[in-house]
Specification:
There is one protein chain. This protein has a single domain, classed as SOS response associated peptidase-like (hypothetical protein yedk fold), CATH 3.90.1680.10. The chain starts with a strand and ends with a strand. The strands form 3 sheets. Strands 2, 4, 5, 8, 9, 12, 13, 14 and 15 form a 9-stranded mixed beta sheet that branches. Strands 3-1-10-11-16-17 form a 6-stranded antiparallel beta sheet, with no helix packed on it. It has a two-stranded antiparallel ribbon with strand order 6-7. It is globular. A hairpin with a 2-residue loop joins β4 and β5. The chain is 12% helix and 41% strand. By secondary structure, the chain is mainly beta. The longest helix is centred in the C-terminal third of the chain and has 8 residues.
């Protein structure tokens, strides 16, 4: 999937939807790209917490270190066997839920790509399976797991967020590594469950889906 998602709901709605006990969030980011704040729900000492963290774990290759380059960011987890993730994902303390209402993919030709947004029908909020941790380089950060895309999303990207149903939240947060693997490698959700919003907004416009400049015939049923 691409590196852009949005939440078009108020913090109070997120707190209620995810059963949050303690929230330190005063405002909801209109959109999140790697390196900017996003919201996560995690469990600690039996309580659910809503926090704002930065999207993207530090990533620094041997070549980058050799040339003195600072670490970059990686916000998507496609391969759980990668050494970046294999020790984190087994520890339930580092699992989280990432609230969102829309995720986007770039559409069109290079140099003039626009935003195409995806959302779930009849669901005011989605939960994206994520991991989080405090890092020496960037402080508290999070990343989201991806899976094979369904037919509606695949024309723009062969990966999509690993989305969880409400009844799966607890199993993601507290389940075994076998549960985690089963989530990532299951069949993607049905294409019929998704709405598509094609826009005229340039990819880097910063325009959220609630203010999108729609293309004609932009919502596919």
């Amino acid at each position: 999937m691409s590196r852009l998602f949005a939440i078009s709901r108020a913090a109070e709605e997120i707190v209620e939807h995810f059963g949050v006990d303690v929230s330190s969030v005063t405002s909801v980011p209109p959109e999140t790209v790697e390196g900017t704040p996003g919201l996560i729900v995690l469990e600690k000492d039996g309580l659910r917490l809503l926090r704002a963290l930065t999207w993207g774990f530090p990533r620094q290759t041997g070549e980058m270190r050799h040339y003195g380059e600072p670490p970059g960011r990686i916000g998507l987890v496609a391969d759980l066997t990668n050494p970046l993730w294999d020790r984190i994902i087994v520890d339930q303390r580092y699992r989280c839920l990432i609230p969102l209402t829309h995720f986007a993919n770039p559409d069109g030709v290079k140099g003039s790509k626009t935003r195409t947004w995806f959302s779930l029908r009849r669901q005011p909020l989605m939960a994206w399976a994520g991991i989080c941790r405090n890092t020496p380089e960037f402080g508290p950060v999070f990343a989201g797991l991806t899976m094979d895309a369904n037919d509606r999303i695949r024309p723009l990207n062969d990966r999509m967020p690993l989305l969880l149903k409400p009844e799966e939240h607890e199993r993601w947060l507290r389940g075994s590594i076998e549960d985690v693997i089963a989530f990532q490698f299951r069949e993607p959700p049905s294409s019929d469950d998704f709405e598509v919003l094609q826009t005229r907004d340039r990819w880097q416009s910063g325009t959220p889906p609630s203010k999108a400049s729609r293309q004609r015939g932009d919502v596919f049923i």
